[in-house]
Fold:
Amino acid sequence: MNSPDSFLQDLLARMSLPEKIGQLTQARIEDQSPEKIQAGLKAGRWGSRILAQTNWAGNLKNKSLNVEEMNAQQKVAVEESPAGIPLIFGRDVIYGHRTVYPIPHCQAASFHPDLVEKACTCVAREAAAEGIHWTFSPMLDLVRDPRWGRVIESYGEDPFLISEMGCASVRGFQGEDPSAPDRILACAKHFAGYGGSEGGRDYDSTDWSDDSLHNMILPPFRAAVEAGIASMMSGFNQLAGRSVSASPHLTRDWLKTQLDWDGFIVSDWGSVNDLIAHRQAETRSDAARLALEAGIDMDMVDALYEEGLAALVDSGELSEALIDEAVLRVLRAKQRAGLFERPYTEPTPDLQRAPEHIAIAVELACQSIVLLKNDGILPLAATHKKIAVLGPYAEARRQHLGSWCLDGRSEDVTPILDALRTQMPDVNFITANAAFTDEMIAAARSAELTLVCVGESHVRNGEAKSIGELALPPGQEAFISALGALGVPMVIIDCSGRYLPIPAAEQYALAILHAGSLGTEAGTAIAKVLSGEVNPSGKLPMTVPRFTGQIPIYYNRKSPGSALNRGLFKGYEDKRVTPLYPFGFGKSYTEFSLENIELSAEHLPPGESVTLRATLRNLGGRSGAQVVQLYIQDAVSIPTRPMRELKGFQRIELEAGASQTLTFELSEKQLGFYTSKGEWIVQPGEFRLALGFDSTAELTHTLHYKNTL
Ligand code: GLC
Structure:
């Protein structure tokens, strides 16, 4: 039996240079004439078709999928082109297809990787059923600036949480066998460091130190490689004097050589062409050469490879061997996707919004909700007679689907108001026209309690949608203040895709719930949590600043100088220096305690492990889930390390009054880190440990490690 690679080598040997370059070209072809499409497919001009009208697909009406059309195009590619290589169809199926799950930023708040994996399995099933072979997800960008619109696609500020969530997504999309008819290839993006866009301005430059690059930015991509990620996407940003879409050090040296990764890299939409904007390349031909030499295997839609590679090879400026290597990577991915055996899609429409997909969407949406404040008003008492449900999100639909949603439908969303009326039929839920604050105020004053459903719309976040001021959209905060000044008892439900400080809510609200872009089941999930049927358990995947000027503020920072603790210097003369809410924070309707924390041994010999055990107890009168988090602090090290590093978490559900013993394993794996040259080291010394419910948990234990017996 020929080995897979010998089959591919044979195929490569039969390909002309134009056909090879075709495999490295991803095109958006739907606006070309049928004749041009037919001719292009017959010539093998494109190896991939991207199913999107623009790279801001989520914000603009997109063309729906046409499986028959895709099968017909595939038939031409397979049966009429010289090499007969199937197309791979890619699409931004980021967090849902017809069933839409919460945006990744809120999925991260669930701290529930297994559930995220199940959700991505459902997404893959629905997408594959409509002819999609490859999704451009998960996004593994680490983000410290929530002004950046794409924070909504990220898993937040911590590399361990990003890795856990990213790998869960990869497992969900690809499964054990990505060639199965209900699986799709995943794509880890944006390689690398794009989340550091300066000033939160999209497409801006990034400036990560080597220390941050190796300990914050690259670990999730390393984890994705270990999880078997089939592809990656290079980003738009510059980093360390290079466009990351033409950085040999990152792609060829670190990813492909040091990690020995056999997948392929696609550039982001036009990011190879951006080498000219970055002034790294003078011409399109230079840009194409630099990108291919750096290890970018496929060029997304700017046709630079198609336009320029053949001439570069003919002139001797570019080795065809580099093209061959890229082609083999693309062909290997198509083989992993099962396209040579099964190039066509059997439409199976009944898979869309299958009941089990919806059930998992409800569960994940509920667990993505973060309770930030509660004086006890929540959960809503069934004895309430009249509750006003007001604000732009009271009856919203499309906005809950978030900004990277191509195939979700507004009509599949149950608005919050409708869901509450279903969930609590004995309560009279009233509303008023959100366009008239005076009418809403009147409604609020006629009710016992007001639920103010606010938040930014999906059109204000996502790609190319950064904000300068971290705040609710104009008017919403003023409305909350107006209600507060009137003494209206209120609960704030913030449906923004990011975590925003809302000073008026902090001042007046009895409770604050974050329920951002939860997808098609948003209303249902919010009603379940408000009614108490589901006890909220979400935890913040990102530190919430008190005000914009505090950015960047994140928990895993390096230790500041001692002045801050001497009392004279307060951080800011005019503002508080602590965050509004810390990473990992989230309240519950019940109370938990963590007792009897003990270390199995105070000394860790090389190559061995110790355990940190504790008893989690549900002290309250209702069941609930808690996310117990393990943080370490390397007492003294060179190079220096963050004040806290998340190294483990467990989400535990407990009945009222119940308790459970938890065990966390500690070994060199948790204690080590990367040098600025990317070498993994574990230094001898003391490691302080914290086990708790958010990143402010107290460091209570010390582990001594020495790397010699
Ligand atoms: C966009 C985004 C990328 C997306 C791609 C295809 O510009 O940066 O995340 O997957 O283009 O739409």
Notes: Residues 52, 55, 57, 92, 136, 189, 268-269, 463 surround alpha-D-glucopyranose (CB under 6 Å). The two ends are 49 Å apart (CA to CA). The domain at 592-705 is CATH 2.60.40.10 (Immunoglobulin-like).
